[in-house]
Amino acid sequence: MITPEKALQIILDSILVLKPEDVHISEILGLVVAKDVFSEENIPPFDNSAMDGFAVRSKDTKEASPKDPVTLILRGEAVAAGDTPEIKLKKQIAMEIMTGAPVPQGADTVIPVEFCKKLGDRVIIYTHYPANMNIRKAGEDIRRDDKVLEKNKIVYPADIGVLASLGMDKISVFPKPNVAILCTGDELVDIKEPLTPGKIRNSNLYSLSAQVEEVGALPLEYGIIKDDPEEIKEKITDALEKVDLIITSGGVSMGEYDYVKKTITEMGADLKFWKIAQRPGLPMAFWILDDKPIFGLPGNPVSVMVCFENYIRPSIFKMMNKKFQPRQIIKAKMAHPIKNKRGRVHFVRVIVYRERDELWVKTTGDQGSGILKSMAKANGILTIPYEKSFIERGEYVEVKMLKPILKTPIPIRIEDF
Amino acid sequence: MITPEKALQIILDSILVLKPEDVHISEILGLVVAKDVFSEENIPPFDNSAMDGFAVRSKDTKEASPKDPVTLILRGEAVAAGDTPEIKLKKQIAMEIMTGAPVPQGADTVIPVEFCKKLGDRVIIYTHYPANMNIRKAGEDIRRDDKVLEKNKIVYPADIGVLASLGMDKISVFPKPNVAILCTGDELVDIKEPLTPGKIRNSNLYSLSAQVEEVGALPLEYGIIKDDPEEIKEKITDALEKVDLIITSGGVSMGEYDYVKKTITEMGADLKFWKIAQRPGLPMAFWILDDKPIFGLPGNPVSVMVCFENYIRPSIFKMMNKKFQPRQIIKAKMAHPIKNKRGRVHFVRVIVYRERDELWVKTTGDQGSGILKSMAKANGILTIPYEKSFIERGEYVEVKMLKPILKTPIPIRIEDF
Predict the structure, then answer these.
(1) What CATH number belongs to B26-41+143-174?
(2) CATH entry, A21-42+143-174, from 3.40.50.150, 3.40.50.11590, 3.40.50.2300, 3.90.105.10
(3) Does residue B168 sit at the A interface (CB-CB below 8 Å)?
(4) DSSP structure class, residue B415
(5) Hey, which of A91, A403, B370, B414 would disulfide with A379, CB 3.0 to 4.6 Å?
(6) For the domain bounded by A48-136, which CATH number is listed?
(7) Measured between CA atoms, how close is B53 to chain A, in angstroms?
(8) Which is the CATH superfamily of the domain at B4-17+176-319?
(9) d(CA A250, CA A183)
(10) Nearest-5° angle of CA A319, CA A37, CA B349?
(11) pLDDT tens sequence across A256-265
(12) pLDDT confidence bin for B417, thresholds 50/70/90
């Protein structure tokens, strides 16, 4: 059996970054840029007014003051944003102008409307502005050939605004991986079907789908798949054509009906490993088939979620060429002793809470891998290493946080353990 | 003019939490639960095996050891997950059982397969387990009437798994707000249209849409709206029927063609305020019409994004009944002096970076509200208060982070200021 660290290393070494695609800017938020993007234009494309007011030649208002205003002659209609003024401004002439409107030729400053008074075909101006005030110069934001987005950067809303203003509707990014979810097992029924004896509901489909969504990939939900080699083969073949990564749940233990492991391996997949020295999730398998990763998770709801968190989440980051965002790690004190089975890394679902100005950790109760409640109640995962068989009360431990720390102290009750 | 704090207070006081809706569990990740959810069933619904192995009566294996194994008689087919074993286990009888399969009546423990050897219709057992080992008891995860999800909690993937396992396909949550985006201005053309003189591209639609998406709401993109009261009225009327919140850009200054402010007010909307003592975004307006908030943002790309961040982001959190997640605030040293116009709160786009083991802040260059690059380059926003006209080099300031801190030191170049 390999260790969790070794397993993750094998997985990340086998996984390829997805091929870049040209994607519309409405769909690239949070994705990673695959190629440097250069501007083909100036922004703004023309000198335009930063204020509502009057475009003038600065010289003509040199003497203007509240007590001794200057009167200029108004020409043409008010220039609005979107207009193309054809008049060239001569001496002693002013033109009314709106924010964003092109500054007419000849004008070199804009006097804000609050310092002016319009009177018929004249305007009285009560202040002076030097040249080049209140004007946004062509190219002052972005110049032609400026690099506006750098390869390997994550796209934020302002970047999308910049691309739109440059007329770029598509850029090359590393796309969101499509992820197939195949839940196997004759015991599974869909959530709205009646629960006959011996059956359980297929919760893995929904929790995995949410985990895939949370990390920014696109889940493709396959229904329930029977413990039948033919059906497994057919669905895997179908998924290989449609997606970038396949997750199965169930069918990887040592039981007689565990067909997933056998079937996928017989399809020619390269089994990179089977079994990790961990709890939960020991019988996890991992293959590469047609260059695509296949994660064979055990069927237990908690194993599925913990294996996703530890192995598939970093894999999806890599496929998107995204720097892996590790969860926040906090240091806190163990609120009670805890035992571990030597030789296995134990991922314990815990609650981290604040009490008497200190951070404490307690488990969420029974850690059976079927007990999904232990995962739903947890805000963090405590990793007990391999060689450690006991953690004492009061000992400091490190916890990987999945949710915020509980602010209100929660009384520790003995029945929680 | 009101202050930014007062403006936010007026907005949040006027905005209502959305009405809860029953939403399918595939669509509730990250939303807030509107009603306590109680289990109607036991999970697991029946005692089932936690291992692949042999179901036995614990007593019958009491003496078993590697040196002195016990042989039991095998009955029936191996019980797989999903089966319903009809045999009741008698003395000295064992049944092969798979993980997840119902434990047959009479059996009280499961011996893992690695301690057993199957020989025809017998099984040799090399160890003893006390009663109730390797069995997941009915209801041990969740009991009928347990509260499984609490009102006002955010939904995480494990919660979705729990709901699925309980057969609940819909629960009551505060839904994602639908947000209409109306960009007004005769100067606007869509991003793929040719840029004729005097025109600029409608970048606000795309940056706003990305901001709406980032905060978890659903953007509804209206095209470009002309500076025409009739068209503005028609689109606002349409949006009021379809969405929960309306954002307009442009048309709220004092210019002659600024029809948005006039038109919406004339439609009977309750104008809560117009103008905030801030830079950028001074002429922002805010109305309530038919109980729905309308944000009238200025047309400048940076004003739009900063106003969204400061006023609309917290509003959307409130509508979703989500505890507001403020951005991370960090303390850093000003890398250069900076001036402010008194009487306005100035939201300066800055870069926070690490150098010589300290955090430093510099502006992203020209802070004109048309310069979207200043926003795209920024990783934080520095708020210079009202009364402050100058920040010295080396002075400590607080910055609201929009993106991670730059790790690699960036040389400070004089042309950046």
Answers:
(1) 3.90.105.10
(2) 3.90.105.10
(3) yes
(4) G
(5) A403
(6) 2.170.190.11
(7) 8
(8) MoaB/Mog-like domain (3.40.980.10)
(9) 7
(10) 95
(11) 778 999 999 9
(12) very low
What is the ipTM for the molecules in this complex? 0.87
Cβ–Cβ below 8 Å for A163 and B206: yes
Selected residue of B156, B221, B303 to mutate for chain A interface (largest A Cβ count, 10 A): B156
C-alpha B116/C-alpha B72 separation (Å) is 10
Q: How far is Cα B94 from Cα B74, in angstroms, rounded to an integer?
A: 5
**Domain segments of chain B as ranges:** 4-17+176-319, 26-41+143-174, 48-136, 329-416
Give me B45's structure tokens.
Answer: 């619904």
Q: At what angle do helices B259-266 and B229-242 cross, to 10 degrees?
A: 60
Q: Does B376 touch chain A (CB under 8 A)?
A: yes
User: Any CB–CB contact under 8 A between B66 and chain A?
Assistant: no
**Amino acid (1-letter code) at residue B130:** P
Question: Which is more confident, A368 or A266?
Answer: A266
**pLDDT score for B371:** 81
Closest CA to A162 of B200, B416, B124, B92: B200
Does the pLDDT at position A232 exceed 60? Answer: yes
Interface of B with A in 100-119 (CB under 8 A): 100-102, 113
Matching residue, tokens 């179901």: B55
User: Which residues, other chains included, contact B156 with Cβ-Cβ below 8 Å and sequence gap of 6+?
Assistant: A210, A376, A402, A403, B29
DSSP at B379: S
Q: With an 8 Å Cβ cutoff, is A158 touching chain B?
A: yes
Residue type, B315: S
